Every structure is written in C-alpha cells, then in structure tokens.
Amino acid sequence: MKTVRMGAGSGYWGDLLEPAIDLAKRGELDYLGFDFLAELTMSLLQRAKRRNPDTGYIPDVVPWMRALLPITHGNGTRMVLNGGGTNCAAAAEAVLRVARDADLTQLRVAAISGDDLTSRIGEFRQAGVTLANMETGERSIDEIADRIVSAHAYIGSEGIVEALDGGAEVVIGGRLADSSVYVGPLMHEFGWSFEDADWNLLGAAITVAHVIECAGICCGGMSSQWKNVPEPWNMGFPIADFRQDGTAEISKLPNTGGLINQWTIKEHLLYETHNPADYRMPDGIADLTTTRLEETGSDRVRLWDMSGRERPDMLKVQIGYTDGWIGEARVLLPWPDTMAKADRCEEIIRKRLDIVGVTPRELRFDRVGIDALAGPLARRPRRDPEEIELRVTARVDTREEAAMVNREVTHVSTIGPVGTAFGPPVKPREVIALWPTLVPRDMVPVNVTFEEI
C-alpha cells in the first residue's frame, strides 16, 4: 500500500532551523512542509510590503532555503510552505536567487495567489456579503473600513495540488491554511479530488496535518509532560507516514530530543481546537473525536479511524485594522514593603495620567510573578516578595499619548518609594486588531504561476 512520508520543518516564523535540516538530510522524506504564519502575521507583512514592494514574505524563507535547497534538490524531497505571506511572487524570486547562488539547475518553483482580498472589500459588500464579525456579531464593517490594513482568506489545497501536478519542487503560498501544507501533497500523491471526495480520507489527512503542523509541539514542546521530555534543546520535529487507507504513524528521527507518545499527540489534537467534532478547514471538516491511537514503539504513535465531512462553502477571512496605540513601561521595586510600594506606584501613575490629560481606553498594572497571568483572581502573597516588576500597559488613541504614558511611568523613580527604578523603555507600538469573517468560497479563485531555472 502506498505511503507518503512528510516532515514538518517549522511551526511558526522564527522556529528552530536545525531540526528541519536534520529532517531533510536523514528523514528520507517525500515532502517537507513549513507553517510560518500566525493570525497577525499577514497584517505585519502587508505593512512591510507597502514600505518596500520587494518584501512582504517571511524573511526566514531565504536562510531556510539557503540551508535546505541544496539537500532537498539532491534527494528529491519537495517543499511546501506558506511563507509567501503577502508577496508570494517575490518569495519565489528570492528562492530562485538562492538556487542560482548555489549553482542549482532544473528547479521549478510555484507561487500561489488569490488569498489577498484587501482591495476587494467593496466588491464583497456590493455582492451582498455582510462581512459580519464572527466573534462579536457586529455586522457593519463600515466603522473600520478606513483603517483596514489587510484582508486574507484562508485558502485550501487546490493551488498546492495544481503546483505539484505541474512539477513544482518548491510550492510557496500566502495564507494557506496550516493543515493544507500537508493535505495538498496527500491529495496530489493519492489522486484525490474535491469533486468525488472521500471525506473520511480528507478528514484523516486534516487530522494528521493538525497533529504535525506546529512541528515540535507534538514532540513534547509546550507539553504537560515537560519534566519527562529529553533534550528539548535538541528537539526532533515530527514525521508522518500517511497510508493510502487513511491511517498514519507519527515519529521522529533517532538521536533527537523530544518525546512522542499518545499523550503528546492527544494534547496537540486539542490544541487551538474549539470543537473537536467540528474542526473546520478549507479542505474539509475533521471529526477529531473518532480518532484512535496507540503507541507502536519508542517515539512512535499510530492513528486510525479518523473521519471527516464535506468542506464548508464559506472561507474564513482575517481582516486586520489599526485600532490605537500601546504605551508600555516597567517599574522595578525592591524589598521591603514590595506590595505596598507597587500599590503606591500604581496610585501615582493613575494620578499623573489624570494631570497630563491622558485617558486610556484600557490601563493594566501587572505585578509580574504575582498577578500578571491571573489578574484580579490571583491571591496576594502572605509575605512580601523579594522584588516586584510592575508592568504598566495603556491602550490609547495616538502615538503621542502612548509616549506620554511611558514618560509618566519613569517619574515614579524620583517621586515614588525609595529604591524604585524603571526598566528599559519600550517604543510605542500601533495596535493591529482582527476582524474575523466569512466569504463564499466561489468568490476566492486561486491562481498558480511557475518559475524555473
């Protein structure tokens, strides 16, 4: 029975590079996938592209390809990544430059476009698409229309399949769904199509993709078993051997750190999952609750009985828009009376903001180590800690107000309790908020272009 062997080369922008190189060298992979994008990333890349039209893709793409292409081009491993961000064409050209510099030839690179809807908001509105906010229920996007930075649809595997069918060795997409980086190669290899789909097989593909898409996280990263994870500094990234019957085995390379067992896989099955029985992706809806799994060896888990349903008619879109500024500063407080000193500093800062006329939309005082995570639900310590870092964060309307917040916090070192100091200043930063919404799938055509040397 045919088996497709896929490795996960990254789970985010800035992930470890060494495990990806190790997989490329020793993994005997058919495919190496890379997820580089988070929710806010597209807005950040869109702004970078506006400043410089040659940018807009994940900068890691260049050093990653410089390290990996000479290996994968030689052993036949094909790579699929969503690191194209908002400028897949420029990313493809950058990859070709890397290949030329390495004296590689007969290399075909595909770029997928169609996910960028930033300039099409009016078109959707005219077509009667409400663009209602999925989280708040707000139906009118008009209130943020003049502050939109980016709008990108989560697209599925269609473009990846077309690119691989067309002989691409490297496939670069923008807001490809994380799972599609792995579902696409499986559809290509097994000849699956959406027109006569076996939705249980696609559900299995989505489930396995979900397990490995964050790379080291299913190998003991971020795990409740962190005390038992060997050599996390030498983390091995996951490999999925996916069989044509819809079963799979997850493993990692020998002599790497990390841990794969049924619990690390179960933890990741629930990671970023609202409803495990209704895990919606552009390629289908996986029912994660039917999945059965067993440990078949050291760092090896088999999955079967995975299932799914027909893909949704609507695609999720993340619209990023500007929504004020953040001013942030830190105060360092020594023992004794650390809690009382922190309370006094908070009082001083609140009064000073009133005096200078800054009224934040939101104002937070976090005593790091005491209540920074639990907020007002945290219990105050019975004894004064040796030291406290008071983190002050204010959300305001303008950059100037954010700078005033930072300046006022520094004053407590001279007008506040004895021993008070302030931490390194943090530059005011603009807030990019997200407006999640849905658009009809048939209004988001996907296009694939090829370049080669």
Description:
With 453 residues, the protein is an alpha+beta fold. It is 29% helix and 26% strand. A ten-stranded mixed β-sheet has the order 11-12-8-7-1-2-3-6-4-19, with helices on both faces. Strands 5, 14, 15, 16, 17 and 18 form a six-stranded antiparallel β-sheet that branches. Strand 1 (3-10), helix 1 and strand 2 (31-34) form a beta-alpha-beta unit. The longest helix has 19 residues, at 338-356. It is globular, with a radius of gyration of 25 Å. The model has no long low-confidence stretch (mean pLDDT 95).
In short:
This protein is α+β, with helices and mostly antiparallel strands.
Low-confidence stretches: none
Q: How many H/I helical runs? A: 12
Number of strands: 19
| Outline | globular
Approximately what portion of the residues adopt beta-strand conformation?
A: 25-35%
SSE class: alpha+beta
Major sheet characteristics: 10 strands, mixed
State the helicity in percent bands: 25-40%
Distance between the termini: 35 Å
Write out the strand line-up for the largest beta sheet, numbering strands in chain order. 11-12-8-7-1-2-3-6-4-19
Kindly report the oligomeric state of this protein: single chain
Mean pLDDT: 95
The whole-angstrom Rg is 25 Å
